[in-house]
């Protein structure tokens, strides 16, 4: 006997969540990150669970990269007020160096979903590539932050959190222009890096920073999301949960 078909009708960015909820697989969490390609500052990962009835209230929510800074701030506040639950994980640059950005990102996603304690999700949607280890079913959604509202919400939470961190770091390290380029490798950032050398907030495992610092890039680190996922080794103390105590996790939820 064939399993019953799931009929998907075009519901915009709420289609996937609606179908999953209808088939008893919710609540649905979206996960996304900000700062993956930056050569300075933390990697920030967020997860969000939206109310099924909030499609109208959150109409216009989309990928954070498509929004102006003012619009991102607006949506950040609105998501925090209305989301059933949300969590943000901040992974310091030194941790990215130690793990590699891809492995750090995967673990950050797992941590963000695990921190959704007020409304534990039944299903997880990730942006672009598959991730295992959530303890519940998950689906990789191509261009997910433009297709699924819950992933878009996570992208906004991650992006605004990281931008604010980089603006604060600009006051501590005012020679690099972090408030402007947010740690990405723009021509101005590269020029400042060459002129002043790296600061502690730079990622020394990135080739451009390592070159200026006179170091070799550590072998085996993954800095490209197109590469296969690297699973933690249970026999390696560096891959245990306890090794991640330095991560900052900010949780919230039960919005209006």
From TrEMBL:
Binding site for a divalent metal cation: 32-33, 127
Main location: cytoplasm
Localization per record: Cytoplasm
EC number assigned by the record: 3.1.26.4
UniProt enzyme class: hydrolase
PROSITE patterns: RNASE_H_2
Catalytic activity: Endonucleolytic cleavage to 5'-phosphomonoester
Function: Endonuclease that specifically degrades the RNA of RNA-DNA hybrids.
Cross-referenced Pfam families: RNase_HII
Record Gene3D superfamilies: Ribonuclease H-like superfamily/Ribonuclease H (3.30.420.10)
Keyword Cytoplasm assigned: yes
Protein name, UniProt field: Ribonuclease HII
Cofactor note: Manganese or magnesium. Binds 1 divalent metal ion per monomer in the absence of substrate. May bind a second metal ion after substrate binding.
Signal sequence annotation: none
GO molecular-function terms, A-Z: RNA-DNA hybrid ribonuclease activity
InterPro entries tied to this protein: RNase_HII, RNase_HII/HIII, RNase_HII/HIII_dom, RNaseH-like_sf, RNaseH_sf
């Amino acid at each position: 006997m064939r399993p019953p078909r799931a009929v998907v009708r075009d519901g915009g960015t709420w289609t996937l969540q609606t179908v999953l909820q209808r088939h008893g697989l919710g609540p649905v969490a979206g996960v996304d990150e900000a700062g993956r390609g930056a050569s300075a500052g933390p990697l920030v990962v967020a997860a969000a669970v939206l109310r099924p009835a909030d499609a109208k209230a959150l109409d216009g929510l989309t990928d954070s990269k498509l929004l102006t800074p003012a619009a991102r701030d607006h949506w950040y506040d609105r998501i925090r007020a209305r989301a059933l639950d949300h969590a943000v994980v901040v992974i310091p640059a030194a941790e990215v160096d130690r793990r590699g950005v891809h492995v750090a990102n995967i673990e950050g996603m797992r941590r963000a979903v695990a921190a959704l304690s007020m409304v534990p999700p039944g299903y997880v949607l990730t942006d672009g590539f598959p991730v295992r280890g959530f303890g519940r079913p998950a689906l990789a959604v191509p261009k997910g932050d433009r297709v699924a509202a819950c992933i878009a919400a996570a992208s906004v939470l991650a992006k605004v959190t990281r931008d604010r961190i980089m603006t604060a770091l600009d006051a501590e390290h005012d020679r690099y222009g972090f408030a402007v380029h947010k740690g990405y490798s723009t021509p101005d950032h590269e020029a400042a890096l060459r002129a002043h050398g790296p600061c502690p907030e730079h990622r020394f495992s990135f080739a451009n920073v390592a070159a200026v610092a006179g170091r070799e890039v550590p072998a085996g680190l993954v800095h490209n999301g197109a590469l296969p996922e690297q699973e933690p080794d249970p026999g390696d103390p560096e891959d245990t949960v306890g090794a991640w105590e330095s991560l900052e996790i900010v949780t919230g939820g039960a919005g209006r």
